[in-house]
Amino acid sequence: MLDWFEHEGHVCIVFELLGLSTFEFLRQNHFLPFNVEQIRHMAFQIFRAVCFLHRNQLTHTDLKPENIVFVCSDYDLQYNEIRECKEKTLRSLDLKVVDFGTATFDHQKHESLVSTRHYRAPEVILGLGWNQSCDVWSLGCVLMEFYLGCTVFPTHDSKEHLAMMEKILGPIPPHLLKETR
């Protein structure tokens, strides 16, 4: 935080100017996936940020590519002969996790529905409550999206979402299904 001020009853917080979100970079780069080395470098930074939050009893609840932002999104442009298109290569992979609008302390009341649909953990979909593990699930979905260049679970329906999970990961454990509301 660089500064803060109040304007017409609203607290305004000033942060450093950051670059593109990882989603926006993927979109502008024709959804070409990141390579494994790039993902490893980005994952390390995101894990550190999420570990910091969790150590401080805070759950982000909305980890997604739109909320993971490059510090600087300068890039080099080169022609990718395999894909027959121009490909952007970032000069720096430094990034930050942003948008804490739905972040929740562990001791606070938890809303029943959290996370953006494509990154929502099965326990949230099943109405079983949630904890910091929902961030871990979301992060796994984000990293797979970086690797694939597309979302793992592209759906807007809970039943279809669970069916997609089962197709990829195998059956949902019976004890979880028994606990559903």
Topology:
Blueprint: E1 3-7, E2 10-14, H1 22-28, H2 36-55, E3 58-59, E4 68-70, E5 75-80, E6 85-90, E7 95-97, E8 104-105, H3 122-125, H4 133-148, H5 158-169, H6 174-179
Antiparallel strand pairs: 1-2, 3-8, 4-7, 5-6
Shape: flat
Instruction: Calculate Rg over CA atoms.
Output: 18 Å
Low-pLDDT runs of 5+ residues are none
Number of strands: 8
**β content, as a range?**
15-25%
CATH superfamily: Transferase(Phosphotransferase) domain 1
Order of helices and strands: EEHHEEEEEEHHHH
Keywords:
single chain, 181 residues, alpha+beta, Transferase(Phosphotransferase), domain 1, 6 helices, 8 strands, 36% helix, ATP binding, Prot_kinase_dom
Short description:
This protein has about 180 residues and is an alpha+beta fold. It has helices at about 20-30, 35-55, 120-125, 135-150, 160-170, 175-180, and strands at about 5, 10-15, 60, 70, 75-80, 85-90, 95, 105.
